[in-house]
């Protein structure tokens, strides 16, 4: 019986607890200053290369306030109110699938991108809209294609496709898996094997498009032991100790059942993506790669849950852009709480922080099934070495990493006939 959504702590290994650091305080300082000064006098905050908070401001008095608080002010021409007004104008224009936009805090611009599916006429129309807003709206085209990251993962699936699980959550009585909404509608039944013999759970709530999250209730009602532990490969586990909002400039890690563990940086917040299936807003934008089947997988930093994989462009060979549904927004809408380590549950909530510099590298996906206590396999790489070597990293980075291997289905299975069709299809395809 599968009992947890995540590859749990391997017997004989210890999970590394979360430890906060000065970078956490830097992120909080920037956000607090933006809140104090207001969106008419600021245009976002981020973590600088030196780990200090940077706040974009529009006047000298605001700059003095930022400097007095120990942060670095950056004078800009456009306030957050102006930048948000620009994105509102873009949203009001005729919808074009294959486009996305987000506010770039560092350049004080709105970046609009169109993938290879956008026609020349649609691109020209969108450029006219941008020109009417102002020169701070920048346009660019990409060779990739914005897609939700469905299919292509290990066979824990339904007749419609496969995804990766996100985080274990609870309403105090029943436990659930939190994952991407595009993975399947309500009443989708999930299996954890290609033969359709082991039922994992059922989708009871989903929001997509608009948002991109769903809630899957465990068949047993409980996530089981070590629901707060995720694996980072080679039998090593780390604990998720809380949830928070992402910060621009923050070093993050994304895990998925197709491409394994990858790292990158948060590049923008409140991004809008026009997928072919519909528009999703309020997303976290990153330069972390992802591939089909990684949908729903977790984004985290320093043991803090940040989001679930929504979609993007590119792959983990050439790189790309990946968007994430913020976990805090999903949990608030669903009225659930993250299942975290007991030692963190009674303390103060932790906030995310950027990690030490790391190059992009990966850990092969685990062969362990969700909730199993089998060793988590995967070849050691420079990334995992950095995650666990105290000589090379700050204390908070010890808990970054993890791979959530459970996958979810995307279509109704209403009868025994559908179940048999599922068995026939995946026995032939993946058996």
Automatic annotation (TrEMBL):
Residues 162-334 form the Peptidase S1 domain. The chain crosses the membrane at residues 393-413. It holds the Pfam family Pro_Al_protease. GO terms for biological process: proteolysis. The keyword Cytoplasm does not apply. SMART domains: Tryp_SPc. CDD domains: alphaLP-like. Residues 1-22, 349-377 are annotated as: Disordered. GO terms for molecular function: serine-type endopeptidase activity. Residues 349-366 have a biased composition (Low complexity). InterPro entries: Pept_S1_alpha_lytic, Pept_S1A_streptogrisin, Peptidase_S1_PA, Peptidase_S1_PA_chymotrypsin, Trypsin_dom, TRYPSIN_HIS, TRYPSIN_SER. GO terms for cellular component: extracellular region. The keyword Chaperone does not apply. Keywords: Disulfide bond, Hydrolase, Membrane, Protease, Serine protease, Signal, Transmembrane, Transmembrane helix, Zymogen. Belongs to the peptidase S1 family. This is Protease. It comes from Streptomyces fuscichromogenes. The lineage of its organism: Bacteria, Bacillati, Actinomycetota, Actinomycetes, Kitasatosporales.
């Amino acid at each position: 019986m599968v009992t947890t959504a995540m590859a749990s702590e391997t017997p004989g290994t210890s999970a590394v607890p979360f430890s906060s650091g000065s970078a956490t305080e830097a992120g909080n300082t920037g956000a607090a200053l933006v809140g104090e000064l207001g969106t008419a006098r600021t245009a976002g905050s981020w973590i600088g290369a030196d780990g200090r908070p940077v706040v974009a401001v529009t006047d000298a008095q605001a700059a003095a306030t930022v400097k007095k608080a120990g942060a670095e002010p950056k004078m800009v021409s456009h306030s957050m109110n102006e930048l948000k007004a620009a994105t509102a104008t873009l949203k009001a224009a005729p919808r074009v699938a294959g486009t996305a936009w987000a506010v770039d805090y560092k350049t004080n611009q709105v970046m609009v991108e169109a993938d290879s599916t956008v026609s020349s006429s649609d691109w020209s129309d969108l450029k006219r809209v941008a020109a009417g807003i102002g020169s701070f709206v920048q346009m660019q085209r990409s060779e990739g294609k914005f897609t939700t990251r469905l299919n292509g993962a290990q066979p824990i699936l339904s007749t419609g496709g496969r995804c990766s699980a996100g985080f274990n959550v609870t309403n105090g009585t029943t436990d659930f898996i939190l994952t991407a909404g595009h993975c399947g509608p309500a009443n989708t039944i999930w299996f954890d094997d290609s033969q359709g013999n082991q039922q994992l759970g059922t989708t009871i709530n989903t929001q997509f498009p608009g948002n991109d999250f769903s809630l899957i209730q465990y068949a047993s009602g409980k996530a089981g032991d070590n629901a707060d532990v995720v694996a980072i490969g080679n039998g090593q586990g780390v604990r998720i100790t809380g949830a928070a909002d992402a910060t621009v400039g923050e070093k993050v890690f994304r895990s998925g059942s197709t491409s394994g563990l990858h790292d990158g940086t948060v590049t923008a917040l409140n991004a809008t993506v026009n997928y072919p299936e519909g528009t999703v807003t309020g997303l976290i934008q990153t330069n972390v790669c992802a591939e089909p089947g990684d949908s729903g997988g977790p984004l985290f930093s320093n043991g803090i849950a940040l989001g679930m994989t929504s979609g993007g462009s590119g792959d983990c060979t050439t790189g790309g852009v990946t968007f994430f549904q913020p976990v805090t927004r999903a949990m608030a809408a669903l009225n659930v709480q993250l299942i975290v380590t007991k030692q963190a549950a009674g303390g103060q909530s932790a906030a995310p922080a950027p990690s030490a510099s790391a190059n992009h590298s990966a850990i092969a996906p685990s062969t362990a099934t969700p909730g199993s206590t089998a060793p988590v396999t995967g070849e050691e790489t420079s990334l995992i070495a950095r995650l666990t070597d105290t000589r090379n990293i700050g204390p908070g980075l010890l808990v970054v990493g993890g791979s959530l291997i459970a996958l979810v289905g995307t279509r109704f299975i209403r009868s025994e006939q559908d179940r048999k069709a599922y068995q026939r299809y995946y026995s032939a395809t993946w058996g």
